Amino acid sequence: MASNPLSGPISVARRVPIGDTGLEIHPLALGGSTFGWTLGTEQAFDVLDRFAGVGGSFLDTADSYAAGRSESIIGKWMAARRTRGRMAIATKIGHHPDHRGLSPADIAASVDASLERLGIERIDLLYFHGDDVAVPLEESLGAVDALITAGKVGAIGAADFTPERLIEARVLAANGLPRFQAFTTKYNLMERRPFEGAPELVAHAQGLAVMPYFGLANGFLGGQVRRRADVRHDARGERQARHLGRRGHRVLAAVDEVAFAHGVQPATIALAWLLAKPTVVAPVVSASRPDQVDALVAAASVELQRSEIVELDRASE
């Protein structure tokens, strides 16, 4: 019988709460967007093994990632390694080709399909994967209320909702419907403006646990791409290439300097900068190899000095 790669010692990591959900997690979420797409099952298992082995405890996926294969891989891994009790699971619904949108019928069908793929009885945190303006928000929240009552969903979050819709949702919650506990949106040192401002103010006022995705700007802030010759000829490479330029080099130089002072990788500092923001609870970051995981998880152990945060802020303006 094969040995369990997770049977050895596990580091005890710092834990943070997700709103009022009762969930406490290590403040770095492993994103599953690459599972079943650029990573096969065995490669994904290797990354997941490493994440769990260094104290990671929060997995973020979506029913639309690789048309559901990401959820299936995570489900197979949890069953094989018996890690369900140690992992909080967040998934998103609304974009799967079989169940698009947030109508009550689509929500119910999406959740049942996700539960089956993940092999679990309850989704800890269910995100609306973008807004669906064709469906009254009251109806969507009502559908989730029934799923929470049935024990299929623990808590709810919003992905890329406008500040206005978040405020509308809070008004509906005041009248008894489920309240958004978390908010996920794009936010990193290279892409600050869309979040900073009204979305950040609303998230702070509502006590939302912010889980930024693309925390490394598609890997650019990991520091491996510094000139055009470093860019891979694929979709991710194209997104990284957009950041090459004076501002990008200025940000990487500032990140390098802080990383050197702390004796860590640039990716660690880029994520530590996010964690220094008052609304941010856990950045969502993907890894393509097990050896990348350590630098991601290490961000929770780095406490940036005020002067370092100011320098990173200034470089990225």
Automatic annotation (TrEMBL):
Protein name: Alcohol dehydrogenase
Taxonomic classification: Bacteria, Bacillati, Actinomycetota, Actinomycetes, Micrococcales
UniProt xrefs under SUPFAM superfamilies: NAD(P)-linked oxidoreductase
This protein's GO CC annotations: cytosol
Alphabetized InterPro entries for the sequence: AKR_Detox_Biosynth, NAD(P)_OxRdtase_dom_sf, NADP_OxRdtase_dom
A Pfam family annotated for this UniProt entry: Aldo_ket_red
Domain annotation NADP-dependent oxidoreductase: ranges: 27-316
Species this protein is from: Agromyces badenianii
